[in-house]
Amino acid sequence: PLADDPVPEADFVYLPGGYPELHAARIADASTFLTTLRDRAASADIYGECGGYMVLGETLTDANGTEHRMAGLLGLATSFATRKLHLGYRRLTSHWGPLPGTRMAHEFHYATTLAADGAPLFDAEDAEGNTLAPMGLIEGRVAGSFAHVIV
To answer: What is the pLDDT of residues 33-60, one digit of tens each?
Structure first.
């Protein structure tokens, strides 16, 4: 994304975690990357994890309060203007084709979710088995969450 490289043709595109909040303006200006990512959503499954999840969203607000447009593939708006720690192990159950079943994961991020419009990706429990709010989003062949899935 930072080099504005095109997303190659693939059956599955994985956007890993990272720190998009530190590079939000550069990602927002990466027109080749964002255009080809949007194009791939018609023919490939796309999964974004933590930082990748934020890039798949509509907007990312940086720590200075500047809003940056992201890929717009998920109805997600995140912000670092108001930070909150989210930390812990999770047991996640997904019904999304490429990532079915139950898996362990960990969550570690400071982003605040301003909006999450769409179908949730995971039913979630904490490490003690307590039910948590559903996590992540699915829109067609695109999905993502803040959880780092342990495979």
So the answer is: 999 999 999 999 999 999 999 999 999 9
* 50 in catalytic set: yes
Tell which residue, 102, 65, 82, 87, has the closest CA to residue 146: 87
**Which is nearest to 121 in space by CA: 149, 148, 95, 97?**
95
pTM attached to this predicted model: 0.95
Q: What is the DSSP letter of 118?
A: S
For the chain, the residue count is 151
CB 138 within 8 A of CB 100: no
Handedness of CA 11, 16, 121, 114 (dihedral sign): negative
Task: Find the catalytic residue in 28, 50, 56, 111.
Answer: 50
Residue 147 and residue 133 in contact, taking contact as beta carbons nearer than 8 Å: no
**What is the side-by-side strand order in the sheet with 12-15?**
12-15, 45-49, 142-145, 137-139
Segment 87-140, tens digit of pLDDT: 999 999 998 999 899 999 999 989 999 999 999 999 999 999 999 999 999 999
Instruction: Give the closest residue to 37 by CA, choosing from 24, 55, 23.
Output: 55
